[in-house]
Design brief:
The complex is a heterodimer.
Chain A lengths: L7 H32 L20 H4 L5 H9 L1 H7 L2 H10 L12 H17 L16 H39 L10 H5 L2 H25 L16 H7 L4 H4 L14 H8 L11 H10 L1 E2 L4 E2 L6 H19 L5 H16 L8 E2 L12 H7 L4 H5 L16 H10 L14 H8 L24
Antiparallel strand pairs in A: 1-2
Helix pairs in contact in A: 1-6, 3-4, 4-5, 12-13, 13-15, 14-15
Chain B lengths: L11 H5 L2 H7 L8 H6 L1 H6 L4 H20 L6 E2 L15 E9 L2 E10 L2 E7 L12 H10 L9 E4 L2 E4 L2 H11 L6 E5 L5 H13 L4 E4 L6 H11 L4 E4 L6 E5 L10 H9 L13 E6 L4 H5 L2 E4 L5 H16 L15 H16 L4 E5 L4 H13 L7 E7 L7 H11 L5 E5 L3 H4 L3 H8 L4 E4 L13 E2 L10 E6 L2 E5 L12 H9 L5 H4 L6 H13 L10 H11 L1 E3 L13 H7 L8 E6 L13 H5 L13 E3 L1 E3 L5 E3 L5 E2 L3 E9 L2 E9 L7 E5 L23 E2 L5 E2 L1 E13 L14 E3 L6 E3 H6 L13 E3 L3 H20 L16 E6 L8 H9 L7 H5 L8 E7 L6 E7 L18 E3 L5 E3 L9 H5 L6 E2 L28 H4 L14 E2 L5 H13 L12 H5 L5 E5 L6 H5 L5 E3 L10 E4 L1 E3 L8
Parallel strand pairs in B: 7-8, 7-15, 10-11, 10-13, 11-12, 15-16, 16-17, 21-28, 22-27, 34-45, 35-44
Antiparallel strand pairs in B: 2-3, 3-4, 5-6, 5-17, 9-14, 18-19, 19-20, 21-31, 23-24, 25-26, 26-27, 26-31, 29-30, 32-33, 35-42, 36-37, 38-39, 40-41, 43-44
Helix pairs in contact in B: 6-26, 7-18, 8-18, 9-14, 12-13, 12-14, 14-22, 15-17
Classes of the chains: A mainly alpha, B alpha/beta.
């Protein structure tokens, strides 16, 4: 019967439940994403389409569809075991990728792996585009994609809003008709415009605007000074992919302060020269970028010797121009004289003012002055991997700030991370914790940074 | 034993229960009446802000804030080295052993550098002289490096103005003025460098008419001359205070400023630490008129007028001679030699000296040769030579003789001097006859100065050859015979300066390019120094075979000591003829004595803001010199002040006109306990006129009031007249009454002890019997320990009955930081306060702000008197945040900006602080400081910046001065509270070192700045949970107590009660 009053609330309820379902799926994907980042991203490409240390993961479920899903789970947990057991898909993969061994992840649950697979599929199909701001960590390069997504949602929201208004109108009409039919006294009904301009609606809209505005302001204020995803252009196109990824040079070979100082230290030019006296031609940019190092170091690449103190600027200019020209001609034998001259002038201008001077890198990770951070504490004592905070730098052609470097982010890690308690006699003075660790009944498996005071103000602010 | 700690007082107002003072003491932030400010014409004139300005500021402020918020984050650069030196890791401090030398002042130091810039001076424990201690002067010296007003290039005077020239032009000009017959004079204070002295010799060889004129503004020439006569060796002997059980000082402030105070304090304290099982300690008796730092540490003070000093020495000698055997000397003035009460005390003193024969030491600060000969004779009959005084390792820290200056002035007047080279000396300021010197100086053709900054004498020169700062120079020092010390640069010269040794070398060489030709490279003096040591110092030792290893070791250690035995000293002087020449006692009504202050020296440190702001240890005054006047109490609140000169606790004090030697000066007074009646005393070193801005016009210059005696030696006292002025000093910057805590007094007309807070605030329940200072006589230690234990256990019993029990094991695990301060070892020298300012970026606020109770020091030294009100003893108590484990400041903070760490630290988080100042109000120790203005020049509003001494650019607003900041400590901005952090940056560093090395934390891993600065080892810091650690051991002494233990705040700083060794028989 039409007599029954239909309330707008019902629609709202329905709309909310729809939204929350989609949010739940989103959360699973988000969880999968963070798991993927933590466990897989070192070896498997994020776009799920290209090969890295390990295969591209896009469409992995299809490739394993001939076998029970449990097989895929156990492959993730312990691949070598499956290979030795002679699982056909496992052997096939092993033959393709020998000798690369996949790490074991025995602690991942089925749900977690499902989450990751959801994410992998999502990233493979949608290119990892995000749907709406769910407060999840946003990697800088993804930001440009956000626009189209949110446009879609705004559009959707507008349609839903319009729908709600129409439906409300219909409900109102039906109610009105029902009232008329029952012979109740019916006055003039407010028009749509009148309803929308009623004090109640305006008040509600104002309230909502203030709420949203305040929320946005506070969030933006918190984000002031944060530079996650900051990837400035550097004076030298130094490739971490080449050095840390392909050549597998240890991070601390160059950033040698990390183990003993608060600063990880940008390496001095002479550190570069340890290798680049021999490696004179780069694999990606040829000699153009390396010449900048030679200019800074005061090294003559033609003779393989450092310039003496009394060599004039003009003589150095001549040597560097000769070097630039020879290499350019070697790389492009077909180049015209004009383009050679242009290239030489171009490259020379880039180094002209920098002979014998340090290279001015653009600082990416900037902490505020009142926050004290010490690399040695984390690298040498805490044995934290560089990638935990800096992300997969070995995959970054241009280095970007991976973590938000916000206080909440620091605190979170201090809450979750266990101290290297067992083999450092420094911690012997924490006797009660040691006793609990020995006592199985206590249920203690580790001591977090928080538990030894890692959240206290003056650990970082003094 | 009397109930002693109720008989503690800090000043006159405290003693007399001055209501104004009581009101002030009850307020954490004492607000000066606004009327005072409004009545200040200058203030009104200066404040030009009107309504329109206000609106402009408001509009600009809002706009700027919005702009700042919307702006992009600035792009920062990370610039690495081209070639990184092995020894430098950015972010890790590097220490270099070096020496602090200024005239005769010497301290072996370690220079802490960060990223190539020196930021802190630490003591060098390898030194046999300073033994790891430092002085306030050494601590503050790092700031001089970054002085923006240093002379920045060589210059020549053209038309009364200095014009910049280059070094080559200067060298050519100077060389052209030198010829074989030139009369060249080098005017210098004591020079400790053997290699530099070798150049003086070379200069004399090349130009035979060259003379070196060495004088010291605070002269010890009398001791030099007396030792020449008595022992044939014109040198200061090696005083061994560590071997003396009975020390007598006639006006020699050996703990504060006399010759080598860091060394003497470290030695003297060795016999002052008390073992409760076998309580014994040495005795110190000081004979003086005004309270000096040494006098304040003395067990007994005998008050004699300055003019009586000489006859008091003879009087004491005769009394001692009668006891131990020795020819009596002719008495001076017979029975009127010294005042009656002093006579009695000196007789008693003679008995004690005789009983301690071979274990006693008598020193005198007198600059009268005859007096010093009698002192030598006295030490001789007491068998001090060979026991407490020796000539092996004789001190070279004072070599000047002002007789040479007299001769120089005569020569200059007659026009025979062609050239004067000033080596850091400033005779136009610091001679009694400076005007005469200036006049004669003008007649010299070529006047060259090596000064680092402009001074009164340098301003009259026509050539400037500015020296490097000592932190930019190579050099050496021989402060005591056989004790060598190296100086190495820790930074490239900041300006176009050249070290003076090199300048002299350039002028000596006939070949212009000599230094370069000789292959000396870019650090010429390094090679010269090395060659000098190879030829002269290396052969003196047999420990090292190769010079390279010798050099490397000495450069690493900073010091090198060749043990040598001097022949035993045999007294060969004529004491009786000396005694007969001693002047008669003056009959003038009032006498004044002039003393060297701990911070200003003879004025050479006046340009240093840290030292200007360091309170004088005894008077507790800053930014100026003050006239110490007498207060005589007749019991209860009845007192008589000298010439009715008074100071009130509101920051006003009387001005007095002092007339001496037909010169007069108007000086604010500070009534001082222990000052002898009808005598006044005043510090020297103030009133500089040509000096970097921090020192300009602070105080009055009293050098012209000093006189020469018949032998041509400066006498640091005079007859004088004192008249009260009708005007008063309105901005009396004395920290004496700031941040007082728990003042107790006696009720007028009765003996009842009251708590001043309670009386003023008229509420009940606060404590009258506060434990801040305890003291006892060494003979009564047993009784005292019993009483102390009883009192403490009562407090502990009550504390256990707390309503909120059960947090006892919070600090059982990990670290629990604590500090122990031995009040018997603390001499009050204030090296720790300056070290704290340097370490923790504590701002300097200037005189006016100090007057408004706004000083920012994290560590203050409270001075308390006890005992005889007219001749009291003094105890110094370093007071800083006590890091209470039950801290009252923490639970009143509305934003949790101050809270407690699991290691027992009371943490202050500046970025959370919103400046309510509740915490400071609730702090029972009053150690929290609020940034009322932008003292650090950290924010962007120039209106908030405050010049400290009328300088154009506020101190610290330029990037050069900021180089001295410790990069590990946040620079606080306006509007936040700050306080002692127990040097948390050092704690964190020490912990990290231990963790990285995979071992437990040890004692030496964490040392606070105040601890490393202390010359006497009074401060010990460490982990209370480490039962084997030093601090745990120290905290076991039954003489220990916590300040205000009864209020149950559970402080982490423990004090050892002051034990004295006063002989009451000397109190007449």
């Amino acid at each position: 019967m039409l007599h029954k009053r239909i309330h707008i609330k019902v629609f709202l309820l329905a709309a909310f439940s729809f939204l929350s379902v989609s949010l739940f799926a989103e959360a699973t994907i988000a969880e999968g994403k963070s798991l993927f980042k933590a466990n897989c991203a070192q070896c498997h490409a994020k776009d799920m389409k290209s090969k890295l240390t390990g295969p591209a993961l896009g469409g992995v479920e299809e490739r394993w569809s001939d076998y029970p899903r449990e097989d895929l789970y156990s492959w993730v947990r312990n691949s070598q075991k499956m290979i030795s057991e002679g699982h056909p898909r496992a052997v096939e993969l092993w033959n393709e990728w020998t000798p690369t061994v996949m790490n074991n992840f025995p602690n991942l649950t089925d749900e977690q792996i499902d989450g990751m697979l959801l994410y992998i599929n999502d990233a493979y199909v949608n290119g990892g585009k995000k749907k709406g701001g769910d407060g999840e960590v946003v990697v800088g390069t993804d930001k440009s994609d956000d626009g189209s997504n949110s446009m879609f949602y705004v559009f959707l929201l507008a349609i839903l809003g319009l729908l709600a208004v129409i439906l409300a109108r219909i409900v109102s009409n039906l109610n009105h008709m029902a009232d008329e039919k029952e012979g109740k006294a019916v006055g003039r009904r407010a028009t749509l415009v009148e309803q929308l301009l009623s004090p109640k609606v305006i008040g509600f809209v104002l309230f909502a605007l203030i709420l949203i505005g305040g929320y946005t302001t506070v969030n933006n204020a918190i984000d002031l000074g944060r530079q996650q995803g900051y990837a400035p252009e550097q004076p030298i196109k130094f490739s971490h992919v080449t050095h840390a990824g392909i050549q597998k040079i240890d991070c601390q070979y160059c950033h040698d302060g990390a183990r003993r100082s608060k600063h990880s230290v940008i390496p001095a030019t002479n550190t570069c020269m340890n290798c680049h006296t021999a490696v004179k031609v780069g694999s990606k940019y040829g000699t153009g970028e390396l010449t900048k190092i030679y200019a800074s170091a005061g090294w003559n690449p033609n003779t393989g010797k450092y310039f003496e103190d009394n060599v004039s600027y003009e003589a150095k200019e001549e040597e560097y121009k000769k070097w630039i020209k020879e290499n350019f001609v070697a790389a492009k034998p077909e180049a015209s004289d004009k383009s050679i001259d242009a290239e030489v002038t171009n490259q020379w201008n880039a180094i002209a003012g920098h002979l014998g001077k340090p290279i001015e890198w653009t600082k990416i990770h900037n902490l505020p002055d009142h926050a004290y951070f010490n690399h040695a504490q984390h690298v040498a004592v805490g044995k934290v991997e560089c990638q935990t905070c800096h992300g997969p730098v070995e995959e970054m052609e241009v280095v970007q700030q991976y973590a938000p470097l916000s206080m909440g982010w620091c605190i979170n890690c201090h809450r979750q991370t266990n101290v290297q308690f067992a083999d450092n006699p420094y911690y012997d003075s924490y006797e009660a914790y040691h006793d609990q660790l020995k006592d199985v009944k206590s249920g203690r498996t580790g001591v977090t940074v928080e538990e030894i005071g890692g959240l206290e103000c003056q650990k970082c602010h003094y | 034993m009397k109930d002693q700690h109720n008989n503690i007082w800090i000043g006159v107002q405290d003693k007399t229960n001055d209501p104004a003072f009581e009101e002030m003491a009850s307020q954490e932030f004492y607000e000066l009446p606004i009327v005072d400010s409004l009545a200040d014409d200058e203030f009104v004139e200066k404040s030009s802000t009107n309504r329109r300005d206000f609106l402009k500021y408001l509009g600009f402020g809002t706009g700027a804030a919005m702009l700042a918020a919307s702006c992009d984050i600035p792009v920062k650069k990370a610039i690495p080295y081209v070639v990184k030196p092995d020894s430098i890791v950015p972010g890790v401090a590097t220490y270099y052993a070096s020496s602090f030398v200024r005239g005769g002042d010497y301290c072996s130091i370690l220079v802490k550098t960060r990223e190539g810039r020196p930021i802190k001076i630490e003591g060098n424990p390898s030194s046999t002289i300073t033994q790891g201690g430092t002085s306030a002067r050494a601590q503050a010296s790092v700031l001089d490096l970054y002085n923006t007003e240093r002379l920045k290039s060589p210059a020549q005077k053209v038309d009364d103005k200095f014009e910049k020239i280059d070094w080559k032009a200067l060298d050519t000009a100077i060389r052209s003025k030198m010829s074989a017959g030139s009369n060249i004079r080098i005017v210098t204070n004591t020079v400790l460098s053997p290699s530099f002295k070798a150049y003086f010799q070379e200069l004399t060889n090349r130009y035979p008419n060259t003379k070196v004129v060495t004088y010291d503004p605070i002269s010890s020439a009398a001791i030099l001359r007396a030792n020449q006569e008595s022992f044939g060796d014109k040198v200061l002997p090696n005083y061994r205070f560590d071997k003396a059980q009975m020390v007598v000082s006639f006006d020699a402030d050996f703990l504060g400023s006399w010759i080598s105070p860091v060394e003497y304090a470290a030695d003297w304290v060795k016999n002052r630490k008390v073992d409760t099982k076998n309580p014994k300690m040495s005795r110190l008796v000081v004979v003086e008129n005004g309270m000096s730092l040494t006098g304040s540490n003395a067990d007994n003070r005998i008050k004699v007028k300055p003019s009586e000093q000489a006859s008091a020495v003879v009087f004491l000698y005769n009394k001692v001679a009668a006891l131990v055997g020795g020819t009596a000397l002719p008495e001076i003035n017979g029975s009127n030699a010294v005042n009656g009460s002093a006579q009695e005390a000196l007789k008693e003193l003679a008995k004690e000296l005789a009983a301690n024969k071979g274990k006693s030491l008598v020193v005198s600060g007198s600059n009268d040769t005859n007096v010093q000969i009698v002192i030598n004779k006295l030490n001789d009959i007491l068998s001090s030579y060979g026991n407490t005084i020796s000539f092996s390792g004789a001190s070279l820290q004072k070599q000047g003789d002002e007789g040479a200056v007299k001769e120089l002035i005569r020569e200059m007047k007659s026009g025979t001097v062609d050239m004067v080279i000033l080596n850091g000396a400033n005779p136009v300021y610091d001679l009694p006859n400076s005007a005469e010197f200036a006049e004669a100086f003008a007649k010299v053709g070529t006047r060259v100065s090596f000064a680092e900054t402009m001074d009164e004498t340098t301003a009259l020169c026509n050539f400037l050859a500015p020296d490097n700062n000592i932190l930019e120079s190579w050099g050496d020092a021989e402060p005591k015979r056989g004790h060598y010390s190296l100086i190495q640069p820790t930074i490239q010269p900041l300006y176009d300066t050249r070290q003076k040794e090199l300048s002299l070398l350039m002028w000596l060489s006939t070949n212009e390019e000599l230094a370069v030709d000789a292959g000396f490279g870019d650090q010429p003096y390094y090679n010269i120094l090395r060659n000098y040591w190879k030829a002269n110092i290396f052969p003196k030792q047999s420990q090292f075979i190769s010079f390279d290893s010798f050099w490397d070791t000495v450069l690493h250690d900073g010091v090198f000591h060749v043990a040598s035995e001097a022949a035993p000293a045999v007294f060969a002087g004529d004491a009786s003829s000396a005694a007969s020449k001693i002047n008669k006692v003056s009959s003038a009504e009032v006498e004044i004595n002039f003393y060297e202050t701990v911070n200003m020296g003879a004025g050479q440190y006046a340009g240093n803001p840290w030292l200007q702001e360091m309170p004088d240890p005894v008077n507790r005054t800053v930014w100026g010199n003050y006239l110490g006047t007498n207060i005589t109490f007749n019991g209860n609140n009845d007192y008589k002040s000298f010439k009715d000169l008074n100071q009130d606790s509101k920051g006003n004090t009387d001005l007095a006109e002092v007339t001496a030697n037909s010169l007069s000066a108007i000086i604010p007074i500070t009534p001082t306990f222990g000052q002898m009646d009808n005598t006044v005393s005043c510090g020297l070193g103030y009133g500089r006129t040509v000096v970097t801005s921090a020192g300009k016009d602070t105080g009055k210059n009293l050098f012209p009031m000093c006189r020469y005696n018949n032998d041509g030696l400066i006498q640091y006292w005079s007859e004088c007249e004192v008249t009260k002025q009708s005007e008063r000093e309105r901005e009396f910057a004395c920290v004496q009454y700031h941040h007082t805590m728990g003042v107790t007094g006696t009720k007028e007309g009765s003996e009842e002890v009251i708590n001043v807070d309670e009386e003023v605030l008229s509420y009940q329940g606060s404590l009258t019997d506060r434990s801040i200072i305890y003291n006892a006589h060494v003979d009564e230690v047993g009784d005292f320990v019993e009483k102390l234990t009883k009192k403490r256990s009562h407090a502990q019993y009550l504390n256990k009955k707390t309503l909120y029990p059960g947090h006892e094991d919070t600090f059982k695990m990990g670290h629990h930081w604590a500090m122990h301060i031995d009040l018997n070892a603390c001499t009050g020298c204030a090296a720790c306060t300056v070290a704290c300012m340097a370490e923790n970026n504590v701002p300097v606020v200037g005189k006016k702000e100090v007057y408004r109770h706004h000083e920012m020091t994290w560590l203050r030294i409270d001075r308390y008197f006890y005992g005889d009100v007219n001749n009291p003893n003094v105890v110094y108590q370093p007071m800083m945040c006590q890091h209470c484990d039950n801290a009252p400041c923490e639970n009143v903070c509305p934003v949790a900006a101050t809270n407690h760490s699991s290691e027992g630290l009371n943490q202050m988080t500046y970025n959370r602080c919103i400046g309510t100042r509740y915490c400071a109000n609730n702090c029972p120790y009053k150690v929290r400081r609020f940034n009322w203005l932008d003292y650090t020049t950290a924010d962007i509003w120039p209106a908030n910046e405050y010049p400290i001494n009328g300088e154009d650019l506020p101190f610290g607003a330029d990037n050069l001065t900021r180089m001295v900041l410790n990069p590990d400590v946040t620079v606080r901005s306006r509007g936040v509270i700050e306080k002692c952090s127990f040097c948390v940056q050092r704690i964190q560093e020490g912990k990290l070192t231990a963790k990285r090395e995979g071992r437990r934390l040890k004692d030496n891993d964490v040392k606070t700045a105040c601890q490393t600065a202390c010359p006497t080892g009074a401060i010990v810091f460490g982990d209370r949970n480490d039962k084997e650690g030093m601090v745990s051991k120290q905290m076991e002494s039954p003489l220990n107590y916590f300040a205000l233990e009864e209020i149950n705040v559970a402080p982490s700083v423990m004090y050892t009660a002051k034990i004295h060794n006063r002989n009451t028989k000397m109190d007449a």
